[in-house]
Amino acid sequence: MRRRITVADVTLADSFSIAAAVTESIAWRRRKLAVGEPAKRPGTGPAAGGARSAAFMVDTATVVAATSVRITATYAGTAMTTTLTVTPPPLVASFVVRSRTRGAGACVADENSQELDCVLDASASQGFISAYLWTHTMGSTTQQQTANAPNSATSPQGTGCALYQQGTGGDGPNGDRYLRMEVTLQVRDAGGVVSDIVRQQVKVYPNHQCGFSY
Known about the structure:
The chain has 214 residues and is mainly β. It has helices at 18-21, 161-164, and strands at 2-7, 26-27, 32-35, 39-40, 46-47, 54-60, 67-75, 78-86, 96-99, 103-104, 106-108, 119-121, 131-138, 141-148, 153-154, 169-171, 177-188, 198-205. Strands 11, 13, 14, 16, 17 and 18 form a six-stranded mixed beta sheet that branches. A four-stranded antiparallel beta sheet has the order 10-9-12-15, with no helix packed on it.
């Protein structure tokens, strides 16, 4: 990835300004430029005489967490240093919900365990992910669930009658009746940075469990 850094009119500690450093036409190859990993030093390019700033490109590597590198330019024995922060790719949360028996966007209560049969699949999420932060809400009850990477797919845990009985109902066009559940996901990286929240409305079919007639 290439980033543009501009070395502008900055006064050095000994009051020798960058403007003075470029009063004669020079090339970057005649200056000493040190760039620490994960950034690579730029190629050559002219700095016009009398210019108060000069721009150059720095090639950066992909990083898993925000990383600071120092860029130091020297001319005629005088140095100027700045810091470049290389950031990882953005975190993007994405998921689908799929029931074994009802397909996408649905969950069904198992007749034996009364847990939901659906899978929450976040494999389409992007970034260097260390954890998947789930919630599932029915009525006024919200349950939280965390799955550490690489476990991008999980099933809702701790569901059961206490959760279903908080839900409000809906009717499908084919006469099916269901409960409404909202599922949300955030992803988090190793540095504690989290993505925006994404959410979906999911149909929960009680399957005649927990006293439901449908």
